[in-house]
Specification:
The protein has 321 residues and is an alpha/beta fold. The chain is built from eleven helices and twelve strands. Helix 4 crosses helix 6.
Length: 321
């Protein structure tokens, strides 16, 4: 019997070209969905015939209700080995195996620096003027050398961001709730006395924390007001770590100089969202992990996950608890 597999949110049409799916052809019929389906009823109708679904990161929440409405589903593969939007306990109760893939930490590091550099040197403003025949030099960029970068989070990504900052000759501060002096010393950074200390002292602030109950809304109005007026905020982690209402006020009223954003509360970002048009925002459509090598890893290991599942020996399983 041929099984049906849907690959969700394949915006670039890359899933089938960056991995070899051919040896599944006689057992699995694979289709890709190029557009995100936010409507729950439409999604259920699209996936109703599927025994296998491949989810891209946390774009599509698979909660207990959605899983219940997909009785044919037997294997759910997620890119990455952590996906907070999947109810693993509900999946197990329904007999759905959930498996993951490896994911590299280097692509979000690189995009963090693309946003930070773009903000500091007003790259989009100057490029737009050059293309349109506008003024030749209209901005004065910020130096990185000698300035201070504040890192909220010093895990794998934050540590790599710190190494680049050091190469630029920046001073680096770091803070997280459980950061130790030893961990900071190993990364060659100064541990801030606290979150507010970091925000007050930094010329650039970059967020590299996991979203949790502790970090949701971590940066609200008091925190954004504590930042320097010439400082920039970069968030390539999770949108909900920064209070959206406070951020919009900060950008409109000049509490901070601007923001580089790759993550949003609603994705894709609505066409009329003010973050698309604010002049002091440099935004990208959640590209932090979107690189050729990372996608090759995602989809090559997705094929491995499906193959192993079909043989009765699932690999890289994700379980609750």
């Amino acid at each position: 019997m041929t099984l049906h597999c849907a690959v969700l949110d394949d915006y670039q049409g890359a899933a089938l070209t960056l991995a070899d799916w051919s040896h599944l052809a006689d057992r699995v019929e694979v289709r890709t969905l190029r557009e995100h389906i936010a409507d729950r009823d439409k999604l259920v109708a699209e996936l109703a015939d599927c025994e296998i679904v491949v989810a891209m990161r946390e774009r599509t929440p698979f909660d207990a209700d959605l899983l219940r409405r997909l009785p044919r589903l037997r294997l759910l593969v997620t890119t990455g080995m952590r996906n907070a939007s999947i109810d693993l306990a509900a999946a197990a109760a329904q007999g759905v195996t959930v498996c993951g893939t490896a994911s590299s930490s280097t692509p979000p590091v690189e995009l963090t620096w693309a946003l930070l550099l773009g903000l500091a040197r007003h790259v989009t403003t100057e490029n737009r003027a050059l293309r349109a025949g506008g003024p030749w030099q209209s901005t004065v960029g910020q130096d990185l050398h000698g300035r201070t970068l504040g890192l909220l989070g010093l895990g794998k990504i934050g540590t790599r961001v710190a190494a680049v900052a050091t190469a630029f000759g920046m001073e680096v501060l770091a803070w997280s709730e459980h950061l130790t002096a030893e961990r900071a010393a190993d990364a060659g950074v100064e541990p801030a006395a606290g979150k507010e200390d970091l925000l007050r002292r930094s010329d650039f602030v970059s967020v590299h924390l996991v979203l949790s109950d502790r970090t949701r809304g971590l940066l609200g109005e008091p925190e954004l007001r504590a930042m320097r007026p010439h400082a920039y905020l970069v968030n390539t982690s999770r949108a909900a770590i920064v209070d959206r209402t406070a951020l919009l006020r900060a950008l409109r009223e000049g509490w901070i100089a601007g923001a580089g954003l790759d993550v949003f509360d609603t994705e894709p970002l609505p066409a009329d969202d003010p973050l698309r048009s604010l002049p002091n925002v440099l935004a990208t459509p959640h590209l932090g992990y979107v690189t050729e090598q990372n996608y090759r890893t995602f989809y090559t290991q997705t094929v491995e996950d499906i193959t192993a599942f079909l043989s009765g020996t699932p690999v890289r399983p994700l379980t609750a608890g």
